[in-house]
């Protein structure tokens, strides 16, 4: 790394010397810029937080009482010698790319991002940069997402079929982001929607931020007779716990689906043991990563969590300079491949 | 092709037999007969063979996707399946012609001719074919032409689905499907129509005699025995005089019914699966029997004198292709023990002693491949039999069959026709530790009821060593080569009451160490007594042994886990194979 790099890797996390600030640090620091509120990016224990205004409610819902300063998307703030601004990353509500400018150099750290449309958050905005720090969760050409409309149509059809058979439809997904995206995308006229407590907490933060979601019930609030045509949204851990048994109707146990980018692969679908897999991701797919990288105009790309090696090699073969930050991102949500890491008991409350 | 690809995807997406059957029925009800004919052919095990070599397919996928070779390879490593990799990386064609030729057209006009064109011509043709398909279609295409078509559907399941579509007995469909997947024959719309055509008004055994060309291979329902348990000193009291009983050794083979009618031979397993083609030596021997004969018996490797363990027979059932070598290494014999039909006449209402006399007369000069089960001499009284039964394991049998001499041949487990008892030796058992658990199906879904059990690799030196081993398992450490370990050897999911299952389920949730998909690794803390019927050496199992019919006899709450059995205790139960 050159001496004048705007972002470097420190034991605490990604560090910007010019602004004396960290981006999504994993150890407690004085000043943390948070790209979004997922647990592996937004941790407790920092003295001061900076995040987007759009993400304030969800961040507070997750971290509680923190010293938080917010910026509107695109608003510039001078920190030390650096100029910092936050730009939509399209990942979840309030998610941002961090743009840092210093002496004519511009670096953008993507956090997690997706290109596909999402009704619950601002769309990804390409930002020109000299150096782009990108995630690579789905950095292989096999990961190409179907259009979200098509996936929601599949979900609706599946829900309808189950409802006709009198069986509840359960979708296992991450409680923050994916759950709300599904809520906003399904056809709520098919039947009642039940959400797990962990999802409901986030839903309230979304509502407070002005994101319209359909009406939902908690499991304890819905009458037994309505279960047979209900859609249930719950974190994966809940779907393998006793919690799920209450949705068994006379017609049988609920159909359980998993919504994740990993469901693109048949092996992942089968290993998860779910009845159905919906390919719905809040990360960029392979074409998305490449187009985002190209749109920045960056000549140097630093790759973080995911398929770093193939993405770097591919970029270098195309004449770009590449590097790698070994971060501690990934592991608390979709980035962690299906299975155990998804079962964060912290995500489950009765 | 779209419809069949959709069917494939539906079958592939579920592990539920019921869901698979429903998918098959939907497809067979709506598909044009010519397509359905090929679909049934593929699903029941028909194969085109590899029309295109794997390397060609790989190159084609890589070039079409415009990927460097290393990146295609990375993708393949991540996906683990070539067909899927190609399907996923193949570029989307924006204006795909919205035509959809059926499966029959695809196979006959597009796929089979591939073998006849040269390499370059084939690549160009394949490219056009792939471009016409969506992802599911591309995946299926590679499976069809690469020789890797497998979708977790048994022939039996196909037969049942077709039976439902046709409104016929599945056994009837099974008969008609004999030879359907032969390489020499190509499935046609006519062949499919014949498969599901409604049955002629009457096809009883007697009419088959009159019209041998239309013989029906229908078996009779099997007559089932009841387990005899309890104190062997009370045999006389329970069963009455010894001379009322016909007593035979109980073989550990596959119960089967051999039907010889008209020009045909049909061999049915007890699951009413037609298995004729898997035992050609038996079918050939059966051709020497007079038409209008039905025998009940047991398929056995080695015959009555030297019965091989069930594990050997299993190699014959599980192999898809019967090689000459397999046939010579595991020669199967049909050991007949009852006669249900002779001269085309149903004999089931006759007494067992009458049927036995007919059987003995029939098989007086049986060809190789057919044997008659021997009956124990009447001089052997109850106490002698009780003593003899203890030799069962050494003789490679499971115990005795006791059949009332005046019994008729009933249907199923009825007692109305007279009694048959199976008097098995007590199961072997060991004390083993619960190490993995998986949720059950159906009624037991979301309840952990399917368990994997382990025994110690050697006797633990002391309690401290046991504690250390468990601590290492909890930390997920890979054990040192000489270290004490728990060796998994059997899975079991029956033998506990619902109450006990709930209790163990709660313990499993409390003691889960890690999860792999639906499986939980459980902290070793519970000992069970595991019973099983047989044990054989097995190169395919890590423990080196395979047990038969393992089940839980009881929970041994009284046993500390350090006192569970060792692998040596298990291998000591192996019978020396001669």
Secondary structure topology:
The complex is a heterodimer of chains A (350) and B (578).
Chain A: E1 8-10, E2 13-16, E3 21-23, E4 31-33, E5 48-52, H1 56-63, E6 68-71, E7 76-79, E8 82-88, E9 96-102, E10 105-109, E11 131-136, H2 148-164, E12 169-172, H3 178-185, E13 193-195, H4 197-208, E14 217-218, E15 231-234, H5 236-239, E16 255-259, H6 266-272, E17 276-278, H7 286-296, E18 300-306, H8 308-317, E19 321-324
Parallel strand pairs in A: 3-4, 4-5, 5-6, 10-11, 11-18, 12-15, 12-16, 13-14, 13-15, 16-17, 18-19
Antiparallel strand pairs in A: 1-2, 2-3, 7-8, 8-9, 9-10
Chain B: H1 2-13, H2 17-30, H3 33-43, H4 54-65, H5 69-79, H6 82-89, H7 103-111, H8 119-131, H9 135-146, H10 155-166, H11 170-176, H12 189-196, H13 205-210, E1 226-227, H14 235-239, E2 245-251, E3 254-261, E4 264-269, H15 280-286, E5 293-301, H16 310-318, H17 324-329, E6 332-342, E7 345-346, H18 352-362, E8 370-372, H19 382-389, H20 392-395, E9 397-404, E10 420-424, E11 428-439, E12 448-456, H21 463-474, E13 486-492, H22 498-510, E14 512-516, E15 519-522, E16 527-532, E17 534-537, E18 545-548, E19 551-555, H23 567-571
Parallel strand pairs in B: 1-10, 6-8
Antiparallel strand pairs in B: 2-9, 3-4, 3-5, 5-6, 6-7, 9-10, 11-12, 11-15, 11-16, 12-13, 14-15, 16-19, 17-18
Describe the overall structure.
The complex is a heterodimer of chains A (350) and B (578). With 350 residues, chain A is of the alpha/beta class. Chain A folds into 2 domains: 8-143 and 282-342, Metallo-beta-lactamase, Chain A (4-Layer Sandwich), CATH 3.60.15.10; 148-278, Rossmann fold. Chain A has 8 helices and 19 strands. In chain A, the strands form 3 sheets. Chain A has a 7-stranded mixed β-sheet, covered by helices on one side. In chain A, strands 1-2-3-4-5-6 form a 6-stranded mixed β-sheet, with no helix packed on it. A 6-stranded parallel β-sheet of chain A has the order 14-13-15-12-16-17. In chain A, strand 13, helix 4 (197-208) and strand 14 (217-218) form a beta-alpha-beta unit. Chain B is 37% helix and 20% strand. Chain B folds into 3 domains: 2-146, DNA ligase i, domain 1; 226-424, DNA ligase/mRNA capping enzyme (D-amino Acid Aminotransferase, Chain A, domain 1); 428-571, Nucleic acid-binding proteins (OB fold (Dihydrolipoamide Acetyltransferase, E2P)). The longest helix of chain B has 14 residues, at 17-30. Chain B is α+β, with helices and mostly antiparallel strands. At the A-B interface, helix 6 and helix 8 of A face helix 5, helix 6 and strand 14 of B.
């Amino acid at each position: 790394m050159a001496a004048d790099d705007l972002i470097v890797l420190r034991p605490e996390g990604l560090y910007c010397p010019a602004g004396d600030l960290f981006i999504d640090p994993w150890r407690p620091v004085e000043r943390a810029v948070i790209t979004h509120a997922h647990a592996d990016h937004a941790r407790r224990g920092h003295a001061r937080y900076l995040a987007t205004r759009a993400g304030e409610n969800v961040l507070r819902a997750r971290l509680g009482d923190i010293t938080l300063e917010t910026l509107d998307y695109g608003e510039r703030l001078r920190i030390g010698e650096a100029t910092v601004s936050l730009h939509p990353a399209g990942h979840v509500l309030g998610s941002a790319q961090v743009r840092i400018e210093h002496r004519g150099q511009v670096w953008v750290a993507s956090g997690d991002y997706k290109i596909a449309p999402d009704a619950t958050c601002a769309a990804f905005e390409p930002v020109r940069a000299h150096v782009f720090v990108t995630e690579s969760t789905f950095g292989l050409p096999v990961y190409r997402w179907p259009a979200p409309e098509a996936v929601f149509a599949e979900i609706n059809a599946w829900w309808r079929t189950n409802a006709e058979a009198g069986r509840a439809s359960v979708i296992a997904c991450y409680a923050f982001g994916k759950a709300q995206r599904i809520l906003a995308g399904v056809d709520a006229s098919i039947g009642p929607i039940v959400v797990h407590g962990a999802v409901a907490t986030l839903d309230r933060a979304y509502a407070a931020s002005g994101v319209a979601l359909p009406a939902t019930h908690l499991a304890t609030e819905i009458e037994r007779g309505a279960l047979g045509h209900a859609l249930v949204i719950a974190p994966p851990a809940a779907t393998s716990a006793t919690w799920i048994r209450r949705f068994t109707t006379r017609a049988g146990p609920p159909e359980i689906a998993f919504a994740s980018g990993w469901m693109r692969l048949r092996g992942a679908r089968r290993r998860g043991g779910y009845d159905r897999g919906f390919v719905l991701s809040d990360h960029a797919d392979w074409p998305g990563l490449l187009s985002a990288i190209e749109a920045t105009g960056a000549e140097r790309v630093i790759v973080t969590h995911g398929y770093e090696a193939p993405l770097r090699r591919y970029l270098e073969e195309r004449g770009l300079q590449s590097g790698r930050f070994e971060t501690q991102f990934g592991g608390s949500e979709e980035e962690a491949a299906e299975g155990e890491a998804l079962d964060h008991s912290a995500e489950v409350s009765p | 092709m779209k419809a069949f690809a959709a069917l494939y995807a539906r079958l592939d997406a579920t592990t539920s037999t019921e869901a698979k059957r429903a998918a098959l029925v939907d497809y067979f009800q709506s598909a044009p007969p010519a397509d359905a004919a090929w679909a049934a052919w593929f699903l029941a095990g028909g194969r085109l063979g590899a029309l295109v070599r794997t390397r060609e397919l790989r190159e084609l996928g890589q070039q079409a996707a415009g990927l460097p070779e290393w990146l295609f390879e990375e993708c393949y490593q991540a996906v683990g399946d070539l067909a899927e990799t190609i399907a996923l990386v193949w570029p989307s064609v924006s204006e795909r012609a919205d035509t959809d030729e059926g499966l029959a057209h695809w196979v006959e006009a597009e796929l089979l001719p591939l073998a006849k064109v040269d390499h370059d011509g084939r690549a160009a043709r394949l490219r056009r074919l792939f471009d016409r398909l969506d992802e599911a279609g591309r995946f299926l295409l590679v499976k069809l032409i690469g020789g890797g078509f497998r979708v977790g559907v048994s022939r039996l399941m196909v037969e049942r689905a077709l039976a439902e579509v046709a409104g016929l007995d599945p056994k009837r469909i099974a008969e008609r499907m004999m030879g359907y997947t032969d390489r020499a024959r190509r499935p046609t719309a006519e062949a499919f129509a014949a498969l599901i055509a409604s049955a002629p008004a009457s096809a009883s055994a007697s009419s088959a005699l009159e019209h041998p060309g239309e013989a029906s291979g229908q078996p009779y329902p099997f007559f089932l025995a009841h387990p005899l348990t309890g104190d062997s000193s009370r045999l006389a009291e329970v069963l009455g005089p010894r001379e009322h009983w016909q007593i035979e050794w109980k073989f550990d083979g596959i119960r089967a019914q051999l039907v010889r009618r008209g020009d045909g031979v049909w061999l049915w397993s007890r699951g009413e699966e037609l298995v004729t083609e898997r035992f050609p030596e038996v079918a050939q021997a059966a051709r020497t029997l007079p038409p209008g004969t039905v025998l009940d018996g047991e398929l056995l490797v080695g015959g009555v004198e030297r019965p091989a363990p069930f594990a050997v027979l299993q190699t014959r059932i599980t192999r898809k292709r019967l090689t000459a070598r397999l046939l010579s290494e595991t020669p199967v014999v049909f050991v007949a023990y009852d006669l249900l039909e002779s001269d085309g006449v149903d004999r089931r209402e006759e007494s067992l002693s009458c049927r036995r006399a007919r059987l003995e007369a029939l098989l007086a000069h049986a060809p190789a491949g057919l044997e008659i089960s021997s009956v124990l001499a009447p001089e052997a009284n109850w106490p002698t039999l009780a003593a003899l039964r203890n030799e069962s394991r050494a003789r490679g049998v499971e115990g005795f069959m006791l059949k009332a001499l005046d019994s008729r041949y009933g249907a199923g487990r009825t007692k109305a026709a007279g009694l048959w008892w199976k008097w098995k030796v007590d199961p072997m058992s060991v004390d083993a530790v619960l190490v993995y658990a998986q949720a059950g199906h159906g009624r037991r879904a979301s309840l952990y009821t399917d368990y994997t059990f382990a025994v110690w690799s050697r006797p633990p030196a002391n309690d401290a060593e046991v504690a250390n081993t468990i601590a290492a398992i909890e930390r997920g450490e890979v054990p040192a080569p000489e270290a004490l370990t728990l060796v998994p050897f059997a899975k079991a999911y029956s033998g506990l009451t619902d109450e006990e299952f709930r209790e163990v389920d709660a313990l499993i949730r409390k003691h889960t160490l890690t999860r792999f998909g639906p499986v939980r690794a459980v902290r070793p803390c519970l000992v069970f007594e595991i019973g099983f019927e047989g044990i054989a050496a097995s190169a395919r199992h890590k423990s080196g042994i395979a047990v038969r019919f393992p089940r839980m006899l009881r929970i041994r709450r009284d046993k500390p886990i350090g006192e569970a059995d060792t692998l040596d205790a298990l291998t000591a139960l192996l019978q020396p194979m001669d």
